[in-house]
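User: Hey, my collaborator sent me this sequence without any context and asked if I could get a structure. I don't really work with proteins. Can you help?
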Amino acid sequence: MEAKYLYRYEVRFDHWLDIPYLFCTRYKILKETKCGVWIETGKFDWNRKKFVKLKHSNGVKVRKRFAQPTEKEALKSFIMRKRRQIGILEAQLEQATLALDAGVELLKQKQEGEQIGSKETTPRKDNP
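Assistant: No problem. I've predicted the 3D structure and written it out in structure-token form, which is a compact way to encode the shape of the chain:
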């Protein structure tokens, strides 16, 4: 019987040159079940197997999965994961930029208040 495999693309960076290295990992299928497969993920006993769900109990294909049946699908999945990661990081960058701008503006207001000579000595009623 010929061994079956699932595939997953990942990336590592050469941090000296900022060059991404894409590589495809091949995971051997150890056991097939009604809804998915068990794959071999590591060489050590404590991290050796992982279950990959391929379809729901009603037969509908699972949208997200750790590894794919073909290298082409694995590469498409990698691209989708990276697009999602970029979207999340862009949203976090936007929030961090807004927070930084708010902090800088608050600092300016406090410095202007000190130059005029007014100091806030009593806490605000809404924030004791």
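In plain terms: DSSP finds one helix and four strands in the chain. You can pass these tokens on to your collaborator as they are.
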